[in-house]
Amino acid sequence: MAKQNYKNIELAPKYTPKKSEPYMCPQHLAYFYQLLNAQKEEILQQNASALDYISNANKTNSTITGDDLDIAVSEQENTLTLRTAERANNLLAKIDAALERIENGTFGYSVISGDEIGLSRMLARPLATMTIEEQEEHEKRK
Fold first, then answer.
1. What burial letters (b/e) apply to 22-38, b meaning 16+ CB within 10 Å?
2. 11 neighbors 35 (Cβ within 8 angstroms)
């Protein structure tokens, strides 16, 4: 479907894929490849910060002699941080799957029908794996 030279393409700083370009041409793939990798890097940094926070909080909690409310609030913050990190890990898995679809030439095409998902939808939701119609049908069945 697409050539593999998208990794080496340097895009203009404000480049956005256009409908006038061939669908999922190397420039489109380069755009999404760079976008997804930037999102992945940001999430990895946030997860590292979250782990540092929890590690420091656990060290602090072991030496705190505060009341039960202080300890409960600290534990609640740790739980929330862990949940956020778990959601981020789920998002990382979706980003990795999208990067794999770019690599194998199926990015931007439905995993169900193989039809084009559409540039507008991919710009709005780069992790989309189905056309809008297929997604709506999938959600109705849930």
1. ebbbbbbbbbbbbebee
2. no
**Least confidently predicted of 68-72, 79-83, 101-105, 110-114:** 68-72
pTM score, whole prediction:
0.81
CA 52 to mean position of chain CA atoms = 22
The total domain count for the chain is 2
Rg of the chain's alpha carbons, rounded to an integer?
Answer: 20
Q: Does residue 82 belong to any structural domain of this protein?
A: yes
Half-sphere exposure of 127 (CA within 13 A, CB side): 12
Domain holding 62, by residue range, is: 22-107
Rounded CA separation 30/36 (Å)? 10
